[in-house]
Amino acid sequence: MYNPISLIGKKYIITGASSGIGKATSLLLSRLGATLILLDLNEKGLLETAEMCENTTIVLSVDLLDTKELKTKIVSIVSESGKVNGFVHLAGRPYLSPLKSLNENVLLDVLKLNSIAGLELAKICSHKSVFSGESGAFVFISSVYGCVGSAANVGYAMSKSALHGVTKSLAIELAPKGIRVNCVAPGFVKTNMLESISGSFNSDYDELLNKLHPLGLGEAADVANAIAFLVSDMGKWITGSILNVDGGFTAQ
Amino acid sequence: MEDFLEKMAELFEEDTVQLTDIIVDFDAWDSLTSLSIIAYVGEEFQKTISAAQIVEAETIGGLYELIKNS
């Protein structure tokens, strides 16, 4: 049967795979036939995700802030199990802080995880010892707050909007290698990360969030669907794009 | 305690603050200052407090007690 979104024979690294959108993306890509290397600091969560995946998965517990360890572990796994077609960088952390309480050390950690780790992954996965050489697809995960402003989110916005520049620059740089580079900018989806943020606000916050999304809050699977499209050959002429998957948040 | 008072003075945009000062009476009191306090408490004390708890604490001293007992 004709299935242009099939990922049979493809292999991707998924960071942040232990929960939320990372978990949903892992389940979907696996269901579509991809072999996955699931990467996160939370090994227990990774094993839970791996158990739910329908296809072959390899679990790799690693601290994404340690770029040396990241490279060593990925190169080692790839030499044993075969090269990859690309990655989806879903690992990330929020940083809710107004300007006056911005902490430089926390900000640097947010940048390292949300932006720089993605760049390191791109460096590792575009190397000929790791990249399979065909159907290359890298996907970064930004946020509506990489596109539009929000009070008390300056550090997070900085880390996410950085990925927009990274996406466009790498799309040009890696096109000769046959690697497409895209970015998904989700709105608010129902995940544990959202719950931890909304706890800092009063009860009106949930109502406000709903109003910001004409289609309502999203599900993790809504973002996973967009990612599957971008990594699959259905997106083979798409590179350097920032895809808003936000229920209309940024349409207003 | 000294560091805490110094930080509160910075967040409330005052030269100094006293333990008896009423939180909502500061000119700089608003929802962003509330979020700043939440962020500071999380980073400095690894504790989670809510916006409502800050208001309930009433004074700078009350806020200090809240953090200590959270």
Describe this structure in words.
The complex is a heterodimer of chains A (252) and B (70). Chain A is of the alpha/beta class and 252 residues long. Helix content of chain A is 43%, strand content 15%. Chain A has helices spanning 20-31, 43-52, 67-81, 104-125, 154-174, 192-198, 204-212, 220-231, and strands spanning 11-15, 35-40, 57-61, 86-89, 136-141, 179-186, 242-245. A seven-stranded parallel β-sheet of chain A has the order 3-2-1-4-5-6-7, with helices on both faces. In chain A, helix 3 packs parallel to helix 4 and helix 4 packs parallel to helix 5. The longest helix of chain A has 22 residues, at 104-125. Chain A is globular, with a radius of gyration of 17 Å. In chain A, 46% of the residues are buried. By secondary structure, chain B is mainly α. In chain B, 60% of the residues lie in helices and 0% in strands. Chain B has four helices and no strands. Chain B starts with a helix and ends with a helix. The interface between A and B is medium-sized, with 13 and 16 residues.
Write the topology of this structure.
The complex is a heterodimer of chains A (252) and B (70).
Chain A: E1 11-15, H1 20-31, E2 35-40, H2 43-52, E3 57-61, H3 67-81, E4 86-89, H4 104-125, E5 136-141, H5 154-174, E6 179-186, H6 192-198, H7 204-212, H8 220-231, E7 242-245
Parallel strand pairs in A: 1-2, 1-4, 2-3, 4-5, 5-6, 6-7
Chain B: H1 2-11, H2 31-45, H3 51-57, H4 60-69
Helix pairs in contact in B: 3-4
